[in-house]
Structures are given as structure tokens and as C-alpha cells.
Write a structure and sequence with these properties.
With 164 residues, the chain is an alpha+beta fold. The chain has one domain. Helices cover 18% and strands 60% of the residues. An eight-stranded antiparallel beta barrel has the order 1-2-3-4-5-6-7-8. The protein is globular, with a radius of gyration of 16 Å. It starts with a helix and ends with a strand. The model has no long low-confidence stretch (mean pLDDT 85).
């Protein structure tokens, strides 16, 4: 996990060198229920309608019990292409890869998924952002010996953000 976090930090640092605008966002409704997340979205200087995202999230034990999930949290990296030609707002299509550690009772495993998203981002006063998205993914790697099952995965989110 430490190597994954270190790799994510290096990746974010490398991407911000090319980034024109940086946006940090979270889901306040998730925080109220015990699902903490933070996302950084970087607009590419030469391609203003294309962004790169990096996310991290953590689910508290109470949230996991309430939602009947065994996902502890995770890390995600993705790319979004907005329909608006000149900036990152409005309708978008995206691709995402997600690393998710899971714990059920005393057993733990990790999964890696690849998927797509479709959504909409609204920008208020060039600083405040609201975005919502849905999508699907496919679990392509699962750390369970002898398991070759690759189920589908639902991806969704609702975030409030601030641009710097």
C-alpha cells in the first residue's frame, strides 16, 4: 500500500507540471455517512477539454456495515474528455482504473478494475464546481488464488470542488 501511495504522489506531481488548472473536490454527503474521499483533477495545458484525475477514498467500519460492503477504500486514476472544446465543463466521458483493498472478517484481498464513466460538471464563478457521474467497470485482477471470475462493477460519484 505504501508503494501505491508513493507512486500516486509521484504521478500527481508529474501531472501538475503540465497542468493549467487544479481542482480539489470531495463528497460532503459521503463524509456525513462515513465515506471519505478526495479527488484532484488537472486540466492539461495543451488540451483544455481533457483532464487527468487522481482519487483516494476510505470507508469507515460503520459505513461498511451500513452499506453491506467489504471495500476498505481505494485509489483511482482516470482521464476525462469533455464535450466542450475549450474547457473542462459540461458533459464528459472518462476512463478510470481503480485499486481497491477489501476486508471481510479476517480475510483480505485486493482488486483492480478498469472502466468508463459518463457525467456532467457545472462550474460556478470559475471556482466552485459540482460534478456527478455514473459508469461501469470490469474487475481485471483479483488477489484470490485460483479465482478467475471477473465481475462487473458499478462506478458513481457526486462531488463538490474548488479550483485553484
Amino acid at each position: 500500500m505504501k508503494k501505491t501511495v508513493a507512486t500516486l504522489i509521484v504521478l500527481i506531481t508529474a501531472i501538475t507540471v503540465q497542468a493549467q488548472k487544479v481542482e480539489l473536490k470531495t463528497n460532503p454527503f459521503g463524509v456525513i455517512m462515513g465515506a471519505y474521499n478526495v479527488t484532484a483533477e488537472f486540466q492539461l495545458q495543451d488540451y483544455p477539454s481533457t483532464t487527468v484525475l487522481a482519487s483516494a477514498w476510505y470507508n469507515t467500519p460503520d459505513f461498511k456495515d451500513w452499506m453491506y460492503t467489504d471495500r476498505d477504500g481505494g485509489l483511482s486514476v482516470g482521464i476525462r474528455k469533455y464535450h466542450n472544446r475549450y474547457e473542462d465543463k459540461g458533459v464528459f466521458l472518462g476512463v478510470a482504473s481503480r485499486y481497491i483493498p477489501m476486508t471481510y472478517r479476517q480475510n483480505s484481498r485486493d482488486i483492480l478494475s478498469l472502466g468508463f464513466t459518463v457525467g456532467y460538471k457545472y462550474i460556478y464563478n470559475d471556482k466552485i464546481t459540482i460534478d456527478a457521474f455514473i459508469g461501469g467497470g470490469r474487475i481485471v485482477w483479483e488477489e484470490v488464488p485460483g479465482s478467475y471470475w471477473a465481475p462487473a462493477e458499478f462506478i458513481s460519484g457526486f462531488n463538490f470542488g474548488y479550483r485553484f
